[in-house]
Amino acid sequence: MGFQPVYVVDGARTPFLKGRNAPGPFSASDLALQAGRGLLIRQPFAASDIDEVILGCASPSPDEVNIGRVVALRLGCGHKVPAWTVMRNCASGMQAIDSAMANIQNGRSQLVLAGGVDALSRAPLLYSEAMVRWFARMMQARTIGQKAAVFAKLRPAQLLSPVIGLLKGLTDPNIGLLMGQTAENLAWRFDISRQQMDQFSVGSHQRAVEARAAGHLGEIVPLVDSEGCVHDHDDGVRADSSLAGLSRLKPFFDRRYGRVTPGNSSQISDGAAWLILASQAAVERWRLEPLGRITDSQWAALDPAQMGLGPVHAATPILQRHGLALDDVDLWEINEAFAAQVLACLAAWESDEFCREQFDLPGALGSLPRARLNVDGGAIAVGHPVGASGARIVLHLLHALHAAQAKRGIAAICIGGGQGGAMLVETIA
């Protein structure tokens, strides 16, 4: 049996809010709740009519470990609607969609709410191992004298040097590299200059500004915080982004020889994105008018030190299965973890050596037209709430295809740990 298309009925996302070295105004479940409410209220079915809820999240808080279930109950899906959480690092939201598709295709579900969320600004500060051991000794002490002796061994540095949980999460434990260091690897491998990275990043901001002005971000549901403030746009987008401004930033991951800076990297953000997926039977039952359908998907794995090439390894098999060239795809969304990473993907497809070695092709696959890539900007401008980005790019790709009156698109994402994910989507004539 071939791949049975699954319909994307509708979708919504929150604005992506830039982390500013302090906890943001919304928890992860708050973000998913507000986006979900805005989406479900306009549907002809009730929340309790959904067959299951699947939510991707890379960094759930300790009190929301199965955040999918937490949010499903808060959305009013009821006690009988199963809900669960998936984690595939940067592709957690895309994994939620893929899991929903699988359950629809095998008949377990007909109507699924799937998406992703993360509130990275609320990533925890952790105690060092030495501090944890000190607490353990204090708990074991029974008498006042024993406790005083343990207390006397406390050093201020233990308290004042917390471990940043986000940095731990963005470091690959097998190779000991931060994700940005893997981007430096790709910049060196494909000879990508600092100016090329910065120019790409300026373009991301410019396209995002133009998209907002043109009304191309209709999937955004405004957020309202506890103080009544409305957040209705991606607040990391900079209309004043320029080559001159970015050139003043210093490399972050390799301070002596590096080219990757905060300005040509994705932003640490908070945000959520949802899609409603449906079978043909559900579309007919509820008389739904889908945005489009997902016609294929692919996961791939590669060297973790080269993880940014994940989109190439995942999207290429889709192209081969469907007999497509790069320019046969009307629009592309490649998540902008780093400018170096996206540019490396384009260079890899243009490389005879890479395509022969990795895909047994006679030569280069070709050039991906830049005019078709991330037409409304990407994560460098918009932000990258890790668990949400995979869902965002699939949802926005469908909206962008409609805006361009185009038919076919591919969304692809690199994944920390050395993986890639891709989905082929189509609008419906």
Write structural notes for this entry.
With 429 residues, the protein is an alpha+beta fold. Helix content is 38%, strand content 18%. It has a domain at 179-215 and 295-426: Thiolase/Chalcone synthase (Peroxisomal Thiolase, Chain A, domain 1, 3-Layer(aba) Sandwich). β13 and β14 form a beta hairpin. The longest helix is centred in the middle third of the chain and has 21 residues, at 194-214. The mean pLDDT is 94.
Sequence-ordered SSE layout with sheet pairings:
Layout: E1 6-13, E2 17-18, H1 28-40, E3 52-56, H2 67-74, E4 83-86, H3 92-105, E5 111-119, E6 125-126, H4 129-140, H5 144-152, H6 156-160, E7 163-164, H7 165-169, H8 179-189, H9 194-214, E8 223-224, E9 230-231, H10 243-247, E10 269-278, H11 280-286, E11 292-301, H12 310-322, E12 331-334, H13 339-349, H14 352-359, H15 379-382, H16 386-403, E13 408-415, E14 419-426
Parallel strand pairs: 3-4, 3-5, 12-13
Antiparallel strand pairs: 1-10, 1-11, 2-10, 5-10, 6-7, 8-9, 11-14, 13-14
Helix pairs in contact: 1-2, 3-16, 4-5, 8-13
Strands, total number: 14
Tally the helices.
Answer: 16
Q: Helix proportion of residues, in percent?
A: 25-40%
Shape: globular
- Class derived from helix and strand content: alpha+beta
**Roughly what is the average pLDDT, rounded to an integer?**
94
- The CATH superfamily of the domain at 179-215 and 295-426 is known as Thiolase/Chalcone synthase
Beta-strand residue fraction: 15-25%
Order of helices and strands: EEHEHEHEEHHHEHHHEEHEHEHEHHHHEE
CATH topology name of the domain at 179-215 and 295-426, in short, is Peroxisomal Thiolase, Chain A, domain 1
Q: Rounded to an integer, what's the Rg over CA atoms?
A: 22 Å
The first-level CATH class name of the domain at 179-215 and 295-426: Alpha Beta
N/C terminus separation: 24 Å
